[in-house]
Amino acid sequence: MQATVLTIGDELLIGQVRDTNAAWLGEQLTLAGVVVRRMATVGDDEKALQSEIRQSLDESDLVVTTGGLGPTDDDKTREAVAGLFGVELAFRGEILEDIRERFKLRGRSMPESNRSQAMVPAGFEVLSNRVGTAPGLWREIQEGEAAGGMLAVLPGVPYEMKHLFAEEVLPRVRRRGGLRAIVHRTLRTAGIGESSLQEAAGDLSGMLSDTLRLAWLPGPGGVRLRMTSFGGDREEADGRIAQLEACLRDRIGAYVYGANDETLEEVVGHMLRDRSLTVAVAESCTGGYVAHALTNIPGSSAYMAGGVVAYSNRAKVDVLGVSPDALRKHGAVSEVVAVQMAEGVRRRLGADLGLSTTGVAGPAGGTSEKPVGTVWIGYADADGVAAHRLQLVRDRMLNKQLTTTFLLDRVRKNMLAGRP
Amino acid sequence: MQATVLTIGDELLIGQVRDTNAAWLGEQLTLAGVVVRRMATVGDDEKALQSEIRQSLDESDLVVTTGGLGPTDDDKTREAVAGLFGVELAFRGEILEDIRERFKLRGRSMPESNRSQAMVPAGFEVLSNRVGTAPGLWREIQEGEAAGGMLAVLPGVPYEMKHLFAEEVLPRVRRRGGLRAIVHRTLRTAGIGESSLQEAAGDLSGMLSDTLRLAWLPGPGGVRLRMTSFGGDREEADGRIAQLEACLRDRIGAYVYGANDETLEEVVGHMLRDRSLTVAVAESCTGGYVAHALTNIPGSSAYMAGGVVAYSNRAKVDVLGVSPDALRKHGAVSEVVAVQMAEGVRRRLGADLGLSTTGVAGPAGGTSEKPVGTVWIGYADADGVAAHRLQLVRDRMLNKQLTTTFLLDRVRKNMLAGRP
């Protein structure tokens, strides 16, 4: 089965908004066994849209569009689709009620312009949007009519699009059948860079083939290793993956913290919960990002005691009990201060583990002794306290993310080693 | 002048690499006065590439491709272009010398596979690549041959592509002439949804035309309004934008916090700095996200006193001084607790402003009285303290973002009103 992905919006063509929908859809379709043949981006222009959708339907079995379903005049996708199939836009009362209900839940009344979102091209199925106002549209095109295939029309807001694609579009595509067997599995690593990891993994070429591939995907949360097995029956494909995974875990298992969609904060969170441990975080250079990552996990209140963003020396001294002497003598970015922050936040919040970060996030503020990217991370528990120095990069946001990854990976490794 | 942007590579179609070249080219072409008509992404496939380039040359005056110029077998762009124009690939010794020289500079010898990068389709001009190995290609197509227009073939490595586009392609396009003046300006709003904002803005159709457009771009950080003025000279285009901006500010100016690339945390940060105010944040449901947003701005240590992530009741009571009685009587998600958290963090960290968030972030944990998405935000300064209730959505991450936007916007509005 082949697919074309169309993203719609003037803001994409002028580069004001960077499209993330196309890449996400490309990945999801590929994972489902659909071959993505082409992607295209057009503006909010009825004619351009129609010509692009027609061409896509001619060449592909499945066309997914995103964008142009908002309530305002510059959203043209509904009109374009109706025009292309030569049908009218019909008002659907039940959609309007849904939209009105969503506004009511948020204590607001629905503006009149949202009525346009209840207009649906005749012959299209409505994909109900539970996380936003614009419903999606779906049509399986009959032989002889326009072209064969399936057309999914989704909103451009990424989380609405993702929800509708996963909940409504993918099940319909699967029902249609004809997907080739593909099995994917991803191992997630932290605490090591891509080339060092490859070196540690050694020569894998003997294991890989046309039916078993391995992709190295680096990112701020660590390097992911995606294994893909093509063709044969499910059991065969699973067997090939299992063999490769065993080999990888044998060689680089120490760096692997999880598989597939598991995040490091999720894995660490579950380990803390299973051990009935609580954690508290004292952050300087990460400015709240570690706490943010930990609290992104639903149910994290079971193990997250809390945190202190100690951006000022006053907060370090008053709230965390860091000694003014240590700050004066070693500076805020130092082993001593990282240690005292970790101990202080653990004591202050009565947690089992105390974590800390202090560093030069950048882009300015570095010295020859402590250049931008110099970071200390601290860890304290009942068994003791330690701090480690990292030398990271020049980008402020990336330094927050990388520090968080290293810190959480240390917590994971300590728990695996039986601490505290 | 109209342009089509083609990005080339299997890794883009399967979503393994997120394309950033298309958005960058879209922005640069638009700023230069070229109308980007369409973008497309195809894999490393000769036939698909030829069909896409042919169609693009038919519809546009300028076609820019990126990718597929590497030295390996899966790079097909050179062959595809030669085939499309019915010309041979010719070996150019001077290019090979350039490539060999680049390797030598990095202390390495050139692998044999790089020879393929010295093969150039006959009739194409070579755009010398001073920052990488793959040269770009350029051709101005004669009337009657294939189609009119200009074709620029660039490498996919962003740094190399940008260099070649700016140094070699743009000057050639400008020399050709016929660029129309385009001016863009974006107003950024917070604290109000897209449709309510449109209602507040009223009927604007009388002001808009083919030469002056307005796009409404919603996101978790608020709705952006992009004004675009086409044609005439620069002064004329600027004048039209200024007139529309004045009208928008007159009607919905209270919601506008900045323009173009300014973020809310940046605007609020600069206002705090200019007033020599410091801020402290007590976060429950946002779990560190407000502090993270504020500390993303370089130099934020000047006004960010710090924060407390008070995820547990113990942290609320011990660190922030929230009364156990209030927690028992009203629950953690309540006006009283939001007020006490804001007052507590302000006092604890000795800041001018104290902010707080407490709510049901979801996806679970809601009750009929306090459903998921119920959030209280608190604000305390020398003039007093207040809390406001928000009714947000079911998505945990989005609730963090939306709460942060509302809270920072309140700080902004209070400062504008002369508080504290």
Number of domains of chain A: 3
Strand content of chain A: 15-25%
Based on the structure, what is the oligomeric state of the protein chains? homodimer
- Poorly predicted tracts of residues of chain A: none
Would you tell me the overall average pLDDT of chain A? 92
What are the key terms here?
homodimer; 420 residues; alpha/beta; Molybdenum Cofactor Biosythetic Enzyme, Chain A; Alpha-Beta Plaits; Maf protein; 3 domains; five-stranded mixed beta sheet; 14 helices; globular
Structure description:
The structure is a homodimer of 420-residue chains. Chain A is α/β, with parallel strands linked by helices. Chain A folds into 3 domains: 175 residues, 3-Layer(aba) Sandwich (Molybdenum Cofactor Biosythetic Enzyme, Chain A); 78 residues, Alpha-Beta Plaits (2-Layer Sandwich), CATH 3.30.70; 147 residues, CinA-like (Maf protein), CATH 3.90.950. Chain A is 39% helix and 24% strand. Chain A contains 14 helices and 17 strands. In chain A, the strands form 4 sheets. In chain A, strands 2-1-3-8-7-6 form a 6-stranded mixed sheet, with helices on both faces. A 5-stranded mixed sheet of chain A has the order 14-13-15-16-17, sandwiched between helices. In chain A, helix 2 packs parallel to helix 6, helix 3 crosses helix 4 and helix 9 runs parallel beside helix 14. Chains A and B meet through helix 1, helix 2, strand 2, helix 10 and strand 14 of A and helix 2, strand 2, helix 7, strand 10 and helix 10 of B. Strand 14 of chain A pairs antiparallel with strand 14 of chain B.
